[in-house]
Amino acid sequence: MAFYDGVSREASISLAVILLHRRRCPRFPNQLAPAALLMLGALLGRSPCALAGNGLLWVNTNTSEKRRSSLMATRSRPGSKKCAVIGGSGFLGQHLVEKLLEKGYAVNVFDIRQGFNNDRVTFFLGDLCCKENLLPALEGVTVVFHCASPAPSSDNKELFYRVNYTGTKAVIHACKEAGVQKVVLTSSASVVFEGTDVKDGTEDLPYAKKPIDYYTETKILQEKEVLGANNPDENFLTVAIRPHGIFGPRDPQLVPILVETARKGKMKFIIGDGKNLVDFTYVENVVHGHILAAESLHKNSPVCGKAYHITNDEPVPFWEFLSRVLVGLDYEPPRYRLPYLLVYYLALLLSLLALLLKPFIAFKPTFTPMRVALAGTHHYYSCKRAKEDMGYRPLVSLDQAIERTVQSYPQLRRAE
């Protein structure tokens, strides 16, 4: 790894051990121990939690007493505005952190990496699945926003399960131990989508029995775990936010991937008749929904233990949305139509072929049945419950959102 260039392995190990036993940095409390633990784990081929279990993780001898005091203080301050954003270095997480600071919250960020610099934020680096890594970030915190998740486009099933399910269980246990009162989960509207039309879908729809991919399967497990942990009698309240098609400035997925596909000449075709309506949701509206949920979450609130769809509330034809983004960045929009069923069955055939050839050659089809379904079916969701229970209204219209997003990507514009 480039981080270790010019430093011997032995010296690096010594440095990591020294860092683990240093006292807190006054500017970034608790920063060095998790970061150094990750560094030492990488060098020794051991997990951070295993090293912590061997006594290498620096722990203040008064930690337990401090946690008890912090827990009592937190519960005696119901109006406390100290929160933690788990996954705060990601796309949604950074936007959420910025809005929370603007609203006067004190913010801790827990992530595997520090994605930005802000003197008003306290960063904690560590392993999401390790409760001992999480606990320092939760001291004195009343609200946790859990938006950590791998990119849905990844093929790493083990990572999906570890982060979305195992990691979420660790988050819940750590929150309870630290005295956190509220947990707001970033879920996904896709937990009810099976590849067929969903029109104005409500939260009463059952979880998908045949999820469109393994990512969604683990998001279902995650949401069930969080909502099942809701327990007003123990002052532990949870809620899940289900956005759909998040986009906006600094988005590392939707717009960059769309532009890359266009540059390769693969955005010429429309799947189906081009009239299928889909929700795309501006990141600022998703953030607004998360904060409203947290501020509405209290004992006897209808929000407790429920899931909420949060969208722009303006369903738009899927291919029209993509075309507006492409044209805004000076690319040609798709023009030629292909029958939906033809493309779907071709994608299914290619997926089966890839599976059969897997022992011999690596073959990854561009179009999968899941991607075809996402591009060719209706899937938009009702925000009625969010409007009634927590007063949600989108802050930014779809027209404004597309304009702001396009203007934020000058580097992606088509060269003259």
From TrEMBL:
Enzyme class of the recorded protein, top EC level: oxidoreductase
InterPro entries for this protein: 3Beta_OHSteriod_DH/Estase, Lipid_A_modif_metabolic_enz, NAD(P)-bd_dom_sf
Pathway: Steroid biosynthesis; zymosterol biosynthesis; zymosterol from lanosterol: step 4/6
Membrane topology per record: Single-pass membrane protein
Enzyme Commission no: 1.1.1.170
Any one Gene Ontology molecular-function term assigned to this protein's record: 3-beta-hydroxysteroid dehydrogenase [NAD(P)+]/C4-decarboxylase activity
TM region(s), chain numbering: 342-361
Compartmental location: Endoplasmic reticulum membrane; Lipid droplet
Domain 3-beta hydroxysteroid dehydrogenase/isomerase: 84-338
Alphabetic keyword roster: Acetylation, Cholesterol biosynthesis, Cholesterol metabolism, Endoplasmic reticulum, Lipid biosynthesis, Lipid droplet, Lipid metabolism, Membrane, NAD, Oxidoreductase, Steroid biosynthesis, Steroid metabolism, Sterol biosynthesis, Sterol metabolism, Transmembrane, Transmembrane helix
BP-aspect Gene Ontology terms: cholesterol biosynthetic process
A Pfam cross-reference name: 3Beta_HSD
Gene Ontology cellular component terms for the protein in this record: endoplasmic reticulum membrane; lipid droplet
Catalytic activity of the protein: 4beta-methylzymosterol-4alpha-carboxylate + NAD(+) = 3-dehydro-4-methylzymosterol + CO2 + NADH; 4alpha-carboxy-4beta-methyl-5alpha-cholest-8-en-3beta-ol + NAD(+) = 4alpha-methyl-5alpha-cholest-8-en-3-one + CO2 + NADH; 4beta-methylzymosterol-4alpha-carboxylate + NADP(+) = 3-dehydro-4-methylzymosterol + CO2 + NADPH; 4alpha-carboxyzymosterol + NAD(+) = zymosterone + CO2 + NADH
PANTHER family: BIFUNCTIONAL POLYMYXIN RESISTANCE PROTEIN ARNA, SHORT CHAIN DEHYDROGENASE_REDUCTASE FAMILY 42E, MEMBER 2
Family as reported in the entry's similarity comment: Belongs to the 3-beta-HSD family.
Subunit text: Homodimer.
UniProt name for this protein: Sterol-4-alpha-carboxylate 3-dehydrogenase, decarboxylating
